[in-house]
Design a protein that fits this description.
By secondary structure, the chain is an all-alpha fold. About 75% of the residues lie in helices and about 0% in strands. Belongs to the nucleoside triphosphate pyrophosphohydrolase family.
Length: about 280
């Protein structure tokens, strides 16, 4: 096969990869659940390319994300559920339906406020239609948390779940109470370490992360933004360790943990004057 600008070639390649016996063993082993993490990862890489303003990289990452759509559609087609064309039809139908001011057979313009209200009304109608198609047992009880979107990153969704619960008073009034909960969760992780059960450790770690998100919410910090900042700080300080060792003709593998810790502290201390000066200028 040769590269092509036609989407049909990508669909053909995906079908070939998923063809039993002649296809790729790894691709044949995958299912919706195993591919889902890659789908999320590719969406983040698209966002990262946009943040960096790298349009060449954005082109590549959009292709990777498109592959994820084709991959899921192919697996669904194998189960006689739907195909790629059905995905395209669904989204084109939705866009036409939600933009009557653009695609309707009539003259005249709608003010921006009217466009937004029409969009919300149509979305509500679509949601009601989907709910009507669900089995009665799924719609018997409408949870307060049902409006929190399931497809969000875990940190963001944790924040939204907590905010929604807080609207009915299910919340702490003092960040220090959340801090107490964090210590409690850390103690439970320590107990789980003694038990040595991986599932229990994973669950308790999740509880700790949820409590940390709650603390971020109470102190007015966005957890995703805060973690991105810490990631950048970690990369910056680790790069300092690499540079200093390289200047001495040494590699990371040659250094002891104690040496790397000492260099980490040096990098941390070097950042303090800059932070203080910036604070003074304010």
């Amino acid at each position: 096969m040769t590269p092509s600008r036609d989407i049909s070639r990508l669909i053909e390649i995906m079908a070939a990869l998923r063809t039993p016996v002649t296809g790729c063993p790894w691709d044949l082993e995958q299912n919706f659940a195993t591919i889902a993490p890659y789908t999320i990862e590719e969406a983040y890489e698209v966002a990262d390319a946009i943040t960096r303003g790298d349009l060449d990289d954005l082109r590549e990452e959009l292709g990777d994300l498109l592959l994820q759509v084709v991959y899921h559609a192919r697996m669904a087609e194998e189960q006689n559920a739907f195909a790629f064309g059905d995905v395209v039809e669904a989204i084109t139908g939705k866009l036409i339906r939600r933009h009557p001011h653009v695609f309707a057979d009539r003259d005249g313009n709608i003010a921006p406020a009217g466009i937004k209200s029409a969009w919300e009304r149509i979305k509500a109608e679509e949601k009601a239609e989907r709910a009507a198609r669900r089995p009665p047992e799924e719609t018997a009880h409408r949870s307060l948390l049902a409006t929190v979107k399931a497809g969000q990153p875990a940190l963001t969704r944790a924040m939204e779940l907590q905010r929604k619960a807080s609207t009915v008073g299910f919340d702490w009034n003092d960040p220090r109470a959340v801090l107490h909960k964090i210590r409690e969760e850390a103690d439970e992780i320590e107990a789980a370490l003694d038990n040595g059960k991986p599932d229990e450790l994973a669950a308790e770690t999740g509880d700790l992360l949820f409590a940390l998100v709650n603390l971020a919410r109470h102190v007015g910090a966005d957890p995703e933004t805060a973690l991105r900042g810490t990631n950048a700080k970690f990369e910056r300080r680790f790069a300092y360790i690499e540079r200093v060792l390289a200047a001495k003709g040494r590699s990371l593998e040659d250094a002891s943990l104690a040496e790397m810790d000492a260099l980490w502290d040096e990098a941390k201390e070097a950042e303090q004057p800059a932070a203080s000066a910036q604070s003074d200028r304010r």
